[in-house]
Write the structure tokens for this entry.
Amino acid sequence: MIRNTLTPAQAGEMTARGLAELPSDQLADLQEALAAEKASLARLIGKLDEALNIKFASDAMTLRESKGKEYGTVTFTDGDVRVSADLPQTVSWDAEMLAEVASHIRDELGGDPAEYLDVKYVVREARFKAWPASLQALFVPARTTGRGKPTYKLERRG
């Protein structure tokens, strides 16, 4: 049997409503084709990012060093192309050590740790669901639920 397969380019010309009117087998084919294109594109983007790093990292590092910068954006030209090279700084904090610092500020210095630290309380949903109802009841007023984005995976039967 010959299947009527819709290409991603053809699908791109259609409205969402028009796509929704297609038979499920065509939507399954399109979903599979788009997943393959997405994976291929992701590999190509990764390769291009690696190539740009190979080509420009040394110049960007030299320019950053000349400006006394370890991180950040520098701009230079390569032929007729203006290159903006950004090297973001990433920062992470050790939560246990920060807890000790907070205690020191409060207990030793008599200060308010809230002036220096933002504390975020998080409740993991899996843990919440495992708690007894009496404990859950204490947390329910602080809990808001919502809907995420629906997803659909189409698979051919047989």
Residues 95-142 form one domain. The CA atoms of residues 11 and 19 lie 7 Å apart.
